[in-house]
Fold this protein.
Amino acid sequence: MTKTPAQNTPATIYLKDYARPEFTIEKLDLEFELTAAMTTVKSTMELHKVDATTQHLVLQGEALELISISMNKNILLPEQYRLTATQLTILAVPETFSLEIIVQIKPQENTQLSGLYRSGATFVTQCEAEGFRRITYFLDRPDVLTHYTTKIIADRHQYPHLLSNGNLVAKGELENQRHWVKWEDPFRKPCYLFALVAGQFELLEDYFITQSGRRILLHIYTEKGYLDQCHCAMQAVKKAMTWDEENYGREYDLDIFMIVAISDFNSGAMENKGLNIFNTKYILAKPDTATDEDYIYIQTVVAHEYFHNWTGNRITCRDWFQLSLKEGLTVFRDQSFTADVTDHGVARIYDVNKLRNRQFPEDAGPLAHPVRPDSYIEISNFYTTTIYEKGAEIIRVIQTLLGKVLFRRGMDLYFTRHDGQAVTIEDFVRAMEDASGMNLTQCRLWYEQAGTPLVKVTADYDAATKRYTLTLEQGCLPTPGQPYKKPMHIPVRTALFDHQGQTLLLDTDDGRPGLEKILQLKEITTTVTFKNVPERPIPSLLRHFSAPIKLQFDYSEEELVLLIKHDTDAFNRWEASQIYAQRLLLELIATYQQKRPLQMPEKFTELLRSLLNDKQLNKQLLSALLTLPSEIYLAEHMAVVDVEAIFAAREFVKLNIATALRAEFFATYQENVTTETGIIFTLANVGKRQLKNVALQYLLLLPDPALRKLGHQQFVTSLPLNMTDTMAALRGLSHLAIPERELALEQFYTRWRHEPLIIDKWFAVQAASLLPDTLPQVERLTHHEAFDIKNPNKVYALIGTFGQQNMLRFHAADGAGYHFLGKFILQLDKLNSNVAARMLKPLTEWRRQDSSRAALMCAQLEIMMRTPGISNDIYELVTKSLA
Ligand code: BES
Ligand code: ZN
């Protein structure tokens, strides 16, 4: 069951070619008979022509064995249809007819994990985006909505649980130890939201009472032995249901909501109607197995998939070019939820950090594309950080422009106007305009233009007239297919501070006075004048990151320090610290490149010392302030990336900080040890652990046996109790060539060898090690008994971490990292092209590397192009990146 290879040039699909479906499907009855040898799928549907002049019915199908087709109960003869590897065409069909198609499939041989496949002893489906065509012949497109009933027949003992979308309406027993169930989904849906699960599970049950008083059953299904790890996810379901009622007035609409946790899953989770399917990684958690980060992300993912019930399922996408309609909007909703249940400032810092480390590089590279793309070859390549995270930022821009009240009115209108429909991003924007009375014409450019806008800000203060003028100039570099860009509508949230760190009352020609003003950039150049400004102020710009742009302003060091200490916007406090550190690091990088000795300015360590001594500071915010900008973010600021210089400068600064602040870090470490045995996951404890572990990372940089012992001690004590502390210690040790490192890795493996999900952490920490022999270690680990190339989580942990989170070792000057990754991808492509394509990303961004590395990276891409039978997924990314 390998995917159609790119023997010939695969076809490009264009948005401009969109045409409405030629048929409607009244209802679809599915019947699955699951056996060890094969699965038989019978589908019965009622079709109507939309336009009487249409002749043939064209259905998609892939890796299916056709058994029979009947129209209006008559078996079709071979001359009445045409069959290719990807299409079934039924010739000369009447206006209205019923069609019964029987196919056979082999889920046990499906390594793509798309369509119906097996994960261990479980049958499970993944249909988004185009997996349903690997189950039966169908109009596999999101704008064909229909009513589903699903009958499942299977062995009673091996598959006691038979699940599908909607409500269970009938069940019974059959001969030969088999049983059957029938599910009916009362809501019309596109086939990408279909799901089926069959297996033997443990079930965590709970319920939720909706705002209108309906009682909803909540079920989480998991492999035997993991029930105690489902409570975090269950709490998250309830919190998400409450949040959507309170914030959007959206209630759950079926009587049962089910989640199934699956070990082999290409993505994180999937929002199938009433039956969400999750990667075990985003469900299972208890304090000794999951880090605080895992806990928070589980809540976010559970909420995300739940929120899709309205933004994605009740209102779905007309075509896959509109993917951000559901994904960008739902990420925006899950971000808002996470901010509400954690901390607004800290949550924003994490979201922006992710955007900058992943989306900005994508937007500046060969795979840059608009949030609503114009074309694609393989849709699964377009589940990108641009569609998701930049898409979410655009929704936030709209919310900022409209204000919260009008934005909510726009959402209400969107829900009532389009419930039950498959719509476009344009429909969404129009609902926002109609509800608010605002004109969002220019705002639509955010969906059309790729690339990250750059806004350069200059300031002028006239002491005589007490006027302060900001001049903001916007531009955007060319991206593939878009040489010129129009100016965008950019909201820049702004406040002004005086030299005591007090916020100034703003007085401009437009708008009422207030402490914050949203500057509206619409032209290339915008000028804003503030009146009655008593002294030259310090501007706090782009507060809370009010638009997904790069902003430049020439702050003095003193101004940055003032903002770090006094800005009332937590995000901008962090931002000022990042600008400060980034400037220092870029200077040191240049010094290193000139082969001059590096020198550490005392002012910077003194600043950090004063922050460490500020007991009022939120500990998560303090942890973020103490963390230097990432290698990737620094690389973004260099014309030609110099991996070694970035690394040398960063390590130099880190070591100097650790040396200068050793006493403070040690005290911080001791003050923040958490010993609670009761409720471990509280925000206060998360903050303490995070700060303590930041201190530990610095302390472990010092060549002091006592500190290394401390690290290993933390590892040993926390191993049976708390994964956050275990992983923090292990991460710190992993970069050191000392016996404690090997000992800890061995102890970890011994403790967790029977828990594949936890062993993923063990793979990842080794793949991220800065030690010089990391590549040979990673190669060795691909042959380890616990590694399995067919399990996506294993690949993400070992190969993904190495390629995406170990800049130093992946970009080894001799190209050995590239060679290893290239070879691995070709091997994986034959089994699972979707996961293989996800691993390719680091090789595609070769353009900004030095010429020698760029050539070595291209060489790997060219080998792929010459390899016969590569998937469309790989073909598309390689050709676009070499173009
Ligand atoms: N609809 C997607 C699942 C999906 C992803 C289907 C890729 C097909 C291809 C789901 O809603 C999703 O976006 N999941 C995310 C997690 C989420 C919290 C952003 C994922 O799987 O990473
Ligand atoms: Zn999603």
Observations:
- The longest strand covers residues 23-34.
- The pocket of BES (ligand 1) is lined by residues 128-129, 267-271, 300-301, 304-305, 308, 327, 331, 334, 380, 383, 388 (CB under 6 Å).
- Confidence is low (pLDDT under 50) at residues 1-6.
- The chain is about 40% helix and 20% strand.
